[in-house]
Amino acid sequence: MPILVMKFGGTSVADLERIANVAEKVRREVERGYHVIVIVSAMAGKTNELVKWVNETSAFYDAREYDAVVSSGENVTAGLMALRLQEVGVPARSWQGWQVPINTTSQHGSARFVSIPRANIDAKFAEGMKVAVVAGFQGVSPEGRITTLGRGGSDTTAVAFAAAFDAERCDIYTDVDGIYTTDPRITSKARKLEKISYEEMLELASLGAKVLQTRSVELAMRYKVRLRVLSSFDETDETSGTLVCDEEEIMESKVVSGVAHSRDEAKITLFTIEDRPGIAAAIFGPLAEAGVNVDMIVQNISEKDYDEAHAGAVTDMTFSCPVDQVARAKKAMEEAKAAGKINYDELIIDTDVSKVSVVGIGMRSHAGVAAKMFKALSGENINIKVISTSEIKISVLIDRKYMELAVQTLHDAFALDSAV
Ligand code: ASP
Ligand code: MG
């Protein structure tokens, strides 16, 4: 029998009524002839509560016990879902990570998959079980201890099962009905996409379209798992939601597929640094050690590039990072300066910036996207502070107060409200 993976996020299993509602969706797929592997999250808010309890008990907690506690939310949902399915006549059984077993590394709190052997679950399917309900977000380490995958990890569990069991598709049920051309809260012209490529979704996922954990999209791309995002609150059928798939499955796409945004960014400039080999490493090494997620980087041209005679050439370095990491970044730079590893005249920090990006695989073969983007922004008098590009993305840093306007303007400029 073909296998389907269905994943339900926290809001989709927030109470018993919602569990009953999604169990009905599972029952229908069983009736269509599938063996179903259901991956569940903890009930909405549960994981946050468990994390809080751990922190309140122990400030410098033992990560193994953190995992023992925070993995428990999923166990409850898995058992309840199996019970509910049995109530409506579907042979179902729940599985915790260690029972499958879901083998992971022993990096507690951010473990990675090693293997998911099929034998145990397949044996139960052979005995007549129709649905395996598996607790998401967790696994077991080589030492035999419970691990977790990092917040949002049950998306990745779902994709890993789809890959391990050669599933026909991996349906991710959530509280939105698909992937949109941009955030519908910013413009009512946002349009739901029927299909989007893995690469575009990766850019959107990491740019703050928080529908899927980025790792799950990476895994789906690697194993070519067809991923569908759809709402657990709507009536759904084969055509609902958005399919995340290989670009070859997408007949025609626009040059730009979406406009992404990331509201809370900061821009940090090290003014007047030495221009010598090793200076970038001396700056970004300590930032990495301090756990700062540096995003865009711009180094000015050196004075000596236009004035050969200029002795003791200097330059400036600018980078961006999430606003809540600014304090850490500042401390790392001040310490590096105090230790004599770097030198700068001034550290200029701007915490009022946002990042807006246009994303599309069509950019690979079409020129002029950057020009069109910059022209549209200038038409609204929006100043661009930093620009960065990749093969399928152009990002700009702008003042936060213009973020909504920039998204709306770019959505219009690339006519994303229409499918053609
Ligand atoms: N329950 C976990 C979390 O809230 C994992 C997940 O739902 O994906 O992060
Ligand atoms: Mg999630």
Report what the structure shows.
The protein is α/β, with parallel strands linked by helices and 420 residues long. It has two domains: 3-248, 3-Layer(aba) Sandwich (Carbamate kinase), CATH 3.40.1160.10; 259-414, VC0802-like (2-Layer Sandwich), CATH 3.30.2130. The protein has 13 helices and 18 strands. The strands form four sheets. An eight-stranded mixed β-sheet has the order 3-6-2-1-9-11-12-10, sandwiched between helices. Residues 9-10, 41-42, 47, 73, 136-137, 151-155 line the site of aspartic acid.
Strand order of the largest sheet: 3-6-2-1-9-11-12-10
Each distinct ligand: aspartic acid, magnesium ion
Name the assembly state: single chain
Q: What is the CATH topology classification name of the largest domain?
A: Carbamate kinase
Q: Number of helical runs?
A: 13
- End-to-end separation in angstroms reads 38 Å
Number of domains: 2
Could you give the topology of this structure?
Layout: E1 3-8, H1 16-31, E2 35-40, H2 46-57, H3 63-70, H4 72-87, E3 92-95, E4 103-104, E5 113-115, H5 119-126, E6 131-135, E7 138-140, E8 146-148, H6 154-164, E9 169-174, E10 195-197, H7 198-206, H8 214-223, E11 227-231, E12 242-245, E13 258-274, H9 279-289, E14 297-299, H10 303-306, E15 314-322, H11 326-338, E16 346-359, H12 369-379, E17 386-390, E18 393-399, H13 403-413
Parallel strand pairs: 1-2, 1-9, 2-6, 3-6, 9-11, 10-12
Antiparallel strand pairs: 4-5, 7-8, 11-12, 13-15, 13-16, 14-15, 16-18, 17-18
Helix pairs in contact: 1-4, 2-3, 6-8, 7-8, 9-11, 12-13
